[in-house]
Each structure stands twice: as structure tokens, then as C-alpha cells.
Amino acid sequence: MRVDLHCHSTASDGTDTPAELVRNAAAAGLDVVALTDHDTTRGHAEAIAALPQGLTLVTGAELSCRIDGVSMHMLAYLFDPEEPALLAERELVRDDRVPRARGMVARLNELGVPVTWEQVARIAGEGSVGRPHVATALVELGVVPTVSDAFTEDWLADGGRAHVAKHETDPFEAIRLVKGAGGVTVFAHPGASKRGRTVPESAIAELAAAGLDGIEVDHMDHDADTRARLRGLAADLGLLVTGSSDYHGSRKTCVLGEYTTDPEVYGEITRRATGAFPVPGTGGA
After folding, report:
1. Whole-structure pTM over 0.85, yes or no?
2. CA of residue 115 relative to chain centroid, distance
3. Contact at 8 Å (CB) between 178 and 273?
């Protein structure tokens, strides 16, 4: 069984529609794929409607969090999307994305970059606008060669010249809210130092004590030493270990199924969840 538990669609900052994502996941030989768009579940219905036979969908979201001034992402799986408290917090984060993106456009203009809000909005389409859309605009203008090159201190990284902060959830609150909605929490790419400051292991231990279920270890932004260190940390803290592609379509170089989650870990995630259940494909539309 091949299980990829971290993928994005055009509902946030991926380039595949939710329907395209599940069809591409089946074509890539996956048995299970999770749709985890940033702070939104808007793509779930389309993905379910198009789900090919033989592929199972795990519904989820990637929640924007911050701890002690460090940005982090929390993968939430199989929660009730209509649970009021978690829904209200997701909407609060999502509603802050537009003024934040406009602020980054303004800062880039001050730096002499002729990016416009209309360009960023076109790139985002119907998705929840975010830094990858601004980064794509920089690629279009020839300012940087790739989206990844925009996530530096020169441009959009935390603390970068054009960075603008947004509302982000306290991760302890995120764990509480996801648990209250029947879901399971996994700390996404905790060792991705290329993206900026990372959360210290002491804080991860505190999150584990607060109910964090797992950490994403096998990820394109983790080298071999980082994966080994995180795997040991997970063992010490009793956390589940997941692996995922963090697929964004053509916006990033990662491919579906590049890293996967052990089927036994996937089974444990489904056993812990009470808010929603994996959806088996019936042929799709």
C-alpha cells in the first residue's frame, strides 16, 4: 500500500484541481492520498466526486500556526469540517490571507519589483492566496528563477524584506481544536530549515505532551541526517512518523508518492480519528 498524506490543489496553492489531483494520484500508483490544502477544506467535495476506483481519499487541511515567533504548519486529518470552533479559526486565518498578500505586493513595489495585486490574484484563481502565489509572480517577472528561490531573506521568507505576517493559530490551540473536531494532528516538515527558523525539539516535546499525534519525517525538505534525528525524536516522544510528497503540482519539483507513510501508521491515524473517515473511490466523475 502506497500512502501519501500531504498534497495541495488549486483550493490553496497547488496547480492541480482537486479532481486532477486524485486522478494523478491514482495514475502515480498511490492507494491513499490526503488533500491538505492550507486552512481550507473547499476542495474536498470535488476530489470525492472525482475519486477513481481503487484510490482512498483522506480529507484534511494544513493549518497555519506560530509558536514563540516561529511559523509552523500543522497537518490535520479526518476532522469534522463543520465543527464550529475549528471552522471559525480556519476562517479567521483564511480571511487574513488577502490583506497579507496585498501587503507583500506593496513591499515588493517599494523594492522596485513591478508585481501587481491583479497578477497575484490571477495566479491564485479561486484558491486561498498565499506566499507561493506571490512567489510565482516573481518567477513570471524574472526576479527569481524558481518559487523556492523566492523564499529567502531577500524576498518572502519569514523576516525577509517583503514578508508580511498573518494571523496564525497557536499550535496548542490547534491541537485542542482538531481533537475537539475528532481529528488527528501531525507537525508538517518540522526540520525544513531552508524555509527559515525551525521549532526547537523542546517545543515539539511540549506539543507531544499536549496531544500531538505525529511528525512528518520523510519529506523533500529533510536531508538524511534530519530524517534520522526526527525519527529518533518521534520514538522518544511516542509520536507517529509520516512521510509525504507535499505535492503542489507544477509549482514545486516534488512528485506524488515521492515519500510515503507506512501503512501501519496510516491505519493508526484512521483508528484515532472520529470526526470523518477515509473515502474509498467508486470510479469518479
Report:
1. yes
2. 25
3. no
